[in-house]
Design a protein that fits this description.
Layout: H1 5-11, E1 18-25, H2 32-43, E2 52-54, E3 75-77, H3 84-87, E4 88-90, H4 95-102, E5 114-123, E6 126-135, H5 141-150, H6 178-192, E7 207-215, H7 217-223, H8 235-251, H9 255-258, E8 264-271, E9 285-292, H10 299-310, H11 313-331, H12 336-343, E10 354-360, E11 367-368, E12 371-379, E13 387-395, E14 398-407, H13 411-431
Parallel strand pairs: 4-5, 8-10, 10-13
Antiparallel strand pairs: 1-6, 1-12, 2-3, 5-6, 7-14, 8-9, 11-12, 13-14
Helix pairs in contact: 1-12, 6-11, 7-13, 8-10, 8-13
Length: 435
């Protein structure tokens, strides 16, 4: 099976590419064999979970070696059903440590590039966790959530995991109208604009770090009332505004970073699934580049600016889905060099200094073998030197922030703390009556 355009770009972007989602449960930890049995029952029939990369001869085991395979490029192959004994393991450490140890270690070997860990003593209000790690070229964040929901005692039928359409031969793009060409040209210019990376001495002096923090539900509820004369803020808008404030607090005003006036961008992942394919596995997504209002002084004003920037994201994502991706799929038939050319700008740290992902656990209360789900914890991918990633996930009233950084030592902890401070500032402002 051919890799989709999104699969191939994620494979070639030069990053470790490990993403994760953990679900934390109350109660006693089940045995690993019990978990393996549930995984085998629910996932063995899913083609995507049995996929391995068909690598170039003599280069198996390296990410560079997957660039070219038979007939000129890497392909997905399904040699047979996965082995639950290989794919499902007992974690040797707590959840935070598992995230820290995994974020910069690609999942290699001959088995499918994903692992599910049973995590004892997971902390974060639970007794144990199930933690799914995968290479991003195999699965996106929505796929992780779909898979984890399918393991629950009563999985939601509306999002049953399915084979991704992205592995099939893509349709040729429809003829473009003049409006479509203008929108595509505008989006290409926006994606190519020069930006800044986070301050770091040199790429050789950057450090990978991970931090997981809990946000009180009442703080987030109060923050969502901002701006006070507006419609209120979404979780995604709050995260973008808070990240802008955190960067300002930790690194200072943008002109002082590298004596340049270029803006700082964040990449906002956008799910492209529709009602027709809600459970599709793979990489049915795009990323839209949005300027962060780091230069704005007031926390509420930063939130307003972030809301204005995010208001254009749905239309821009539609241009990716309807125009840019179909055109890229058609052009890349000429050879693997096309994907490498398209991926080139995204390999630069200044393309997006951060990534910001907000996600809610859908389907209401969930249990695993009678144990109640109490929290979800995400792991965004580690990217190039001078970047940071943020994942804000919500399950009921439990809201968790994970930050990863590839800049200064322990930047993830400091940035996560600064994001939480921004939420607390909004909450105090919303709770203080105006005079």
């Amino acid at each position: 099976m051919r890799l989709s355009c999104a699969d191939e770009m994620l494979l070639l972007n030069g990053c470790p590419g490990v993403i994760g989602l953990a679900v934390v449960f109350a109660g006693e930890q089940p045995g690993v064999e019990q978990v393996r049995a549930r995984v085998a029952e629910r996932w063995t029939g899913l083609e995507r979970m049995n996929c391995v990369l068909d690598r170039a001869p003599g280069e198996a085991g390296t990410r560079r070696g997957v660039l070219l395979g038979r007939r000129g490029r890497a392909r997905w192959a399904v040699p047979g059903p996965f082995d639950p004994a290989v794919q499902v393991e007992l974690s040797p450490c707590k959840l935070d440590d598992l995230w820290a140890q995994s974020v910069d270690r690609p999942i290699g070997g001959a088995a499918p590039p994903w692992r599910l860990f049973v995590v004892p003593d997971a902390a974060h209000g639970g007794g144990f966790a199930l933690a799914l790690l995968a290479q991003h070229e195999l699965l996106d964040g929505r796929s992780l959530a779909t898979l984890m929901r399918s393991l629950m005692d009563t999985p939601a039928t509306s999002t049953t995991p399915t084979t991704p359409a992205t592995t099939r031969e893509p349709a040729r793009p429809a003829p473009l109208t003049r409006t479509g060409l203008r929108a595509a040209g505008k989006e290409l210019r926006a994606m190519a604009a020069t930006g800044q990376a986070l301050p770091a001495r040199t790429p050789q002096e950057t450090y990978a770090s991970v931090a997981v923090c809990e946000l009180p539900a009442h703080t987030v509820r109060s923050a969502r009332r901002q701006p006070p004369d507006g419609r209120g803020a979404t979780l995604n808008e709050l995260l973008v505004g808070a990240v802008a404030g955190a960067l300002r607090a930790e690194y200072g005003p943008v002109p002082g970073w590298r004596q340049r006036e270029q803006p700082v961008y964040t990449a906002v992942p956008c799910d492209l699934r529709t009602r027709a394919n809600p459970g599709e596995l793979g990489n049915t997504l795009t990323a839209v580049r949005v300027p962060l209002p780091v230069e704005v002084d007031s926390p509420v004003a930063r939130l307003r600016a972030g809301q204005a920037a995010l208001a254009t994201v749905p239309q821009r994502a539609a241009v990716h889905a309807d125009v840019l991706f179909p055109a890229a799929e058609a052009v890349r038939r000429t050879g693997p060099w096309v994907t490498r050319l398209m991926t080139g700008s995204g390999r630069r740290s200044c393309f997006a200094a951060t990534t910001t992902t907000a996600m809610k656990w859908s389907g209401g209360a969930s249990t695993f073998q009678g144990r109640r789900l109490v929290r979800t914890v995400g792991l965004p991918p580690l990217r190039h030197p001078g970047t940071a990633g943020f994942a804000l996930v919500q399950a009921g009233d439990a809201i968790t922030l994970t930050a990863v950084s590839n800049a200064r030592p322990d930047d993830a902890r400091r940035l996560a703390g600064a994001v939480i401070t921004e939420f607390e500032t909004w909450a105090r402002t919303a709770e203080t009556p105006s005079v």
